[in-house]
């Protein structure tokens, strides 16, 4: 039986967007935490940590997020660890995000002028104090636009988890389309919802950038 | 006992030897001006004294601390040895007051009230009491450099290093920074400065050291050195500088 595309279907799509948002939040939170460790390791004075972080970034960035998803969903279940689809999806998105955020933040930390390290070291600060009070606050400003840019990518990349039958926005769109055979209204709604999530992100990035630039030396 | 003691210091950057056996002693309360052309090694020498550059051989002791590469020992040394840079290097994300009190709060564990009083005292000393809440980018170059001096003084150092601190400034802004430094010298601060300000070296320094090609070429009290240079190279150098 072919259903009509009505308000009920549109509301179903809207409701499924909560999984898209949840996946993005989980990927950002855990990916951000891990990414911070990666960035700190990459900019540490230990050669070993530097190399480990560089290797991690290169490896994860070289693997499609879809394969990360297959590895955590199918791979781990073969290994006896049966993760629910939503957990496997969050794990793979977190790992994916950690490599990119780690690299973005590494770049931001390294673009703080070396003189800021010298000036703070000359005031007898420890390396941890330098990071916390001088380097990170400046790196954060530098990293806001690329970080938000990546988060917009992350929102859209959550669509990949539709493959392991997590009914997030894209999967919901496929289901509704299969029932209604009305791809245009269905996927335009889906696209509009993605846009409604991503646009405020991009806008806030531009706002923050302007706000920070107002306080930066010329 | 000298407050700065440098013995046979050697330093190379790759195949280039920039310090070729420097020995120098500085007595407490004196002002030493390091002069020389670009590339003579004077800034490198200064930076070796607070561990911003490592050296290959020889030894240096400043304010009772041996200069090493060991982080904890280096921090102890830096509590007593301040440095001011050519490019100010203020922390752009902090207010002037926070720039001045950041290190005393973290290193000397100063509480908020004492830190506030310290900021006011130090900024008064460099004539910037009205800029307590300003941001570095709202200040002129000369004002920024005076804040940098106040930031360094807030750690109550025993020795102050100045690395071409007026080279990035217009002449009128240079004057305000030199005035602050002159007052500091009169207060008895031990100062080592790399400078191109011949007038200042002549008028304020107790000792001038002319460096050439990684060595100390000529040294002595400025009055004598400027009046009757012993070496042709120093004579040429001041001839060119005064032109």
Task: Describe the protein.
The complex is a heterodimer of chains A (218) and B (243). By secondary structure, chain A is mainly alpha-helical. In chain A, 80% of the residues lie in helices and 0% in strands. Chain A is elongated. Chain B contains nine helices and ten strands. In chain B, helix 3 (96-107) runs parallel beside helix 5, helix 4 (112-125) crosses helix 5 and helix 5 (141-153) runs parallel beside helix 6. Chain B is globular and about 55 Å long. Classes of the chains: A mainly alpha (218), B alpha/beta (243).
Oligomer description: heterodimer
DSSP, total strands of chain B = 10
Largest contact between protein chains?
A: A-B, 22 and 26 residues
Q: State the domain count of chain A.
A: 1
Specify the overall morphology of chain B: globular
Number of helices of chain B: 9
What proportion of the residues of chain B form beta strands (DSSP E)? 15-25%
Distance between the termini of chain A: 66 Å
Say how many strands of chain A there are: 0
Low-confidence stretches of chain B: none
Q: What's the rounded overall pLDDT mean of chain A? A: 92
- Average pLDDT metric of chain B: 95
Termini distance of chain B?
Answer: 39 Å
User: What sequence of helices (H) and strands (E) makes up the elements of chain B?
Assistant: EEEHEEHEHHHEHEHEEHH
CATH level-1 class of chain A? Mainly Alpha
CATH homologous superfamily label of chain A: MetI-like
């Amino acid at each position: 039986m072919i259903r009509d595309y009505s308000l009920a279907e549109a509301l179903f799509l809207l409701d499924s967007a909560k999984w898209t948002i949840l996946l993005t939040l989980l990927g950002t939170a855990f990916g951000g935490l891990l990414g911070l460790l990666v960035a700190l390791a990459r900019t540490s004075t230990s050669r070993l940590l530097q190399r480990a972080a560089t290797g991690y970034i290169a490896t994860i960035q070289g693997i499609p997020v879809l394969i990360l998803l297959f590895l955590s969903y199918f791979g781990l279940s073969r290994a006896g660890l049966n993760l629910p689809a939503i957990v496997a999806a969050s794990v793979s998105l977190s790992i994916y995000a950690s490599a990119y955020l780690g690299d973005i933040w590494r770049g931001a930390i390294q673009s703080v002028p070396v003189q800021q390290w010298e000036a703070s070291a000359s005031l007898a600060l420890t390396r941890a104090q330098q990071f916390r009070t001088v380097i990170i606050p400046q790196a954060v400003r530098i990293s806001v636009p690329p970080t938000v840019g990546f988060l917009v990518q992350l929102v859209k990349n959550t669509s990949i988890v539709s493959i392991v039958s997590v009914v997030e926005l894209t999967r919901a769109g496929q289901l509704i389309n299969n029932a209604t055979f009305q791809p245009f209204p269905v996927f335009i709604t889906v696209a509009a919802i993605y846009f409604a999530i991503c646009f405020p992100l991009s806008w806030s990035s531009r706002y923050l950038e302007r706000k920070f630039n107002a306080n930066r030396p010329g | 006992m000298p407050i700065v003691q440098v013995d046979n210091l050697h330093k190379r950057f790759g195949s280039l030897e920039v310090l070729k056996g420097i020995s120098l002693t500085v007595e407490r309360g004196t002002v030493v001006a390091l002069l020389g052309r670009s590339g003579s090694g004077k800034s490198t020498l200064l930076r070796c004294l607070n561990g911003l550059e490592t050296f290959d051989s020889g030894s240096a002791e400043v304010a009772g601390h041996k200069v090493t590469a060991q982080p904890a020992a280096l921090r102890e040394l830096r509590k007593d040895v301040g440095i001011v840079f050519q490019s100010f290097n203020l922390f752009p994300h902090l207010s002037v007051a926070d720039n001045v009190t950041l290190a005393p709060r973290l290193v000397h564990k100063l509480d908020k009230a004492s830190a506030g009083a310290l900021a006011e005292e130090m900024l008064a000393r460099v004539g910037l009491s009205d800029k307590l809440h300003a941001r570095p980018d709202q200040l002129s170059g000369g004002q920024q450099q005076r804040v940098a001096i106040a930031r360094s003084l807030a750690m109550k150092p025993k020795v102050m290093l100045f690395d071409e601190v007026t080279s990035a400034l217009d002449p009128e802004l240079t004057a305000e920074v030199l005035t602050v430094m002159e007052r500091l010298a009169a207060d008895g601060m031990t100062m080592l400065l790399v400078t191109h300000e011949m007038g200042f070296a002549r008028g304020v320094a107790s000792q001038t050291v002319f460096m050439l090609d990684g060595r100390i070429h000529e040294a002595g009290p400025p009055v004598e050195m400027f009046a009757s240079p012993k070496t042709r190279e120093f004579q040429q150098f001041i001839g060119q500088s005064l032109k």
